Amino acid sequence: MSVMRQANICDLTQIVALNINSNDNAWAEQHFQAALNNNQIEVIEYQGKIIAFAIWQTVLDEAELHLILTDKAHRRQGYGEKLIQSFVTNNPHIKRIVLEVRKSNTAAINLYEKQGFRAISERKDYYMFPIENALIMEKIC
Ligand SMILES: CC(C)(COP(=O)(O)OP(=O)(O)OC[C@H]1O[C@@H](n2cnc3c(N)ncnc32)[C@H](O)[C@@H]1OP(=O)(O)O)[C@@H](O)C(=O)NCCC(=O)NCCS
After folding, report:
1. pLDDT digit string, tens, across residues 30-79
2. Inter-residue contact 34 to 84 (CB < 8 Å)
3. Closest-lying ligand 1 atom to the alpha carbon of residue 75
4. Nearest atom (ligand 1) to Cα of 65
5. Which candidate, 84, 85, 129, 136, has a CA 20 to 30 Å from the CA of 113?
6. What is the spatial distance between Cα 46 and Cα 44, in angstroms, rounded to a whole number?
């Protein structure tokens, strides 16, 4: 059975390793450290191993989803949806969630649309390596 919980400092090594193995555009370790310090990371554990996580930033009644990631071996099993749904349920004061996503990231865009996000604008050449536009998406809660 999987368990969802807030990440703590002991999870840093696993989160960084998962990010390197499962994210083509991996974040630097210090970004995870900063997010951990601010209690912004939710993880899903399965058989004692972290298999998915989401990084959020909240300001008053708005939130930003900075990164969501599922281990390659556990994709398409609903973990991404679970992370978003639980954030919404556990933060009823949040009225709007925004995020940026590569325009070619069909898996993530489909996940977001399924969770009620809609594209509201596009940022030209926002991403590097390779250069690509970002879609800005929002969910009104
Ligand atoms: C995007 C990502 C987090 C999805 O995680 P996941 O746990 O596999 O997602 P879920 O199983 O909850 O999928 C929910 C829905 O998303 C969509 N989806 C997920 N993966 C998909 C894929 N490969 N192709 C098309 N649609 C996909 C589907 O609509 C799916 O619902 P369905 O399975 O009933 O059809 C995962 O693919 C990932 O870690 N990608 C690399 C990191 C990344 O790009 N993160 C987003 C950065 S902005």
Report:
1. 999 999 988 899 999 999 999 999 999 999 999 999 999 999 999 999 99
2. no
3. 8
4. 48
5. 129
6. 7
